[in-house]
Write a structure and sequence with these properties.
It is a single chain. By secondary structure, this protein is an alpha/beta fold. It has helices at about 20-35, 55-60, 80-95, 95-100, 110-120, 130-135, 140-145, 160-165, 190-200, 220-230, 245-250, 265-270, 285, 300-305, 335-345, 350-360, 365-385; strands at about 5-15, 40-45, 70, 105, 120-125, 150-155, 175, 205-210, 235-240, 255-260, 275-280, 310, 325-330. It has a seven-stranded parallel sheet, with helices on both faces. The protein has a six-stranded parallel sheet with strand order 10-9-8-11-12-13.
Length: about 400
């Protein structure tokens, strides 16, 4: 069995740079793999207004990965978006760095298809349960994923993996590999008061905090509904700027405060400044929009050691356990959510117990733990291209 170190080429047709999870998730994974001794690189497309950006400028933008080799590739302007993505995927898989790799790692299905067409070994690292969300794609997925060059899927939740397995698509190449968090910034454990003092913020009211993209598609309308019902609580929304309409709606709620995106090294302070951390108790991000499946924020939330209030949905249930490390509530029921929030605030011993268990749970979900899992999957996949270790969905 090949045990490494491996040459890993990550390819993306997403337009870089940016602060989306689709950017930081692969970079964090690659940095952890590099830390374990593997030779890694990432090649991606660029946003139209960044076409002249150099590899050095990209590394500077993503300050948390200064030693990672980031290589921009040109993108075509104009034309149909899907055709542009397909053309870029074909270009990326034809680059020498892709052809020389032991394995290609990608979040993009068009890259998987291009790699398989070229006979290059590829792992699909993704979060969506595509077979459930778009069943018309299943014949295409089956065709691609039965080819020997396709080495498997690293799926970010039990829900996504079960969707592939139910459709008979993965053929024993389906692995649950959760995302993670960077443990180093969380090494310093802060009290709520000391975290607020470090931020220069000292609200007298309790704080419920959401960190992430500030947009209605993330279910933040439910947080606004909670805020109207709980005027005694401050609701902090920390993250990338959202749509003008939603921002105006949020600014109209007296006890909602909007804060800009914060760097990864500062995020732990913000999370520890909260009394309760919120994953919007809404079904729409998972059911209607489909773009949020077990949010990546779940893992730094756990590491912060604060009680988490989240929706009781199939994706969150794969990691969060009600009454153990979180409080799960029915989605789209702000009255019940507010009652649960008030119970956490009124019973500090309960909040402390949930927060402490959350911190213990987080220890299983570092980026290094994810990288260790991936390197084992790569080793087995390259040794036995037709089977997973136990012939099915691997936990």
């Amino acid at each position: 069995m090949m045990v490494g170190p491996f040459r890993i080429a990550a390819l993306s047709t997403d337009a870089f740079p940016g602060h989306e999870v689709a950017h930081h998730q692969p970079l964090n994974t690659l940095q952890a793999l590099q830390g374990r001794g593997h030779q890694v690189s990432m090649t991606m497309g660029l946003r139209p207004d960044h076409l002249g950006m150099t590899a050095e400028a990209l590394s500077a933008f993503y300050a948390q990965t200064p030693s990672l080799h980031l290589e921009p590739a040109g993108v075509r302007k104009g034309g149909w978006h899907i055709l542009n993505q397909a053309a870029l995927a074909w270009h990326l898989t034809g680059l020498p760095i892709a052809r020389a790799a032991d394995i290609i790692l990608t979040r993009k299905m068009e890259v998987v298809i291009a790699a398989v067409a070229r006979g290059l070994p590829v792992l699909y690292d993704h979060y969506r349960p595509w077979p459930d969300q778009y069943p018309l794609l299943n014949p295409l997925l089956r065709t691609v994923m039965r080819r020997s060059a396709y080495k498997g899927a690293l799926l970010h939740s039990d829900m996504a993996a079960q969707g592939f397995a139910r459709a008979g698509i993965a053929e024993g190449k389906c692995h649950v590999v959760h995302n993670g968090f960077d443990a180093a910034p969380f090494a310093t454990v802060l009290t709520t008061g000391s975290a607020r003092a470090a931020l220069g913020l000292a609200p007298r009211s309790p704080v419920a905090l959401y960190a992430g993209r500030i947009t209605a598609t993330k279910g933040l309308d439910q947080i606004l509904a909670m805020a109207w019902r709980a005027p005694e609580v401050q609701f902090w929304l920390v993250g990338a700027a959202g749509t003008e309409t939603f921002v105006q709606e949020a600014q109209a709620v007296p006890n909602v405060c909007l804060f800009p995106w914060v760097a990864a090294e500062t995020l732990p302070i913000w999370l520890q400044a909260a009394d309760v951390l919120l994953i919007p108790p809404a079904a729409a991000p998972l059911v209607r929009h489909g773009g949020t499946v077990l949010p990546a924020k779940t893992f730094p939330y756990l590491a912060a050691g604060r009680p988490i209030l989240a929706p009781d949905l199939p994706d969150t249930r794969g990691v969060l356990v009600d009454g153990e490390c979180a409080r799960l509530v029915p989605s789209d029921d702000p009255d019940t959510a507010v009652a649960a929030l008030r119970a956490l605030l009124a019973h500090p011993e309960l909040a402390s117990r949930l927060g402490e268990q959350a911190r213990k749970t987080a220890q299983r979900f570092t980026w290094d733990a994810r990288a260790q899992r991936i390197e084992a999957i790569i080793a087995r996949a390259l040794a036995r291209p037709d089977l997973s270790p136990n012939g099915g969905v691997t936990p």
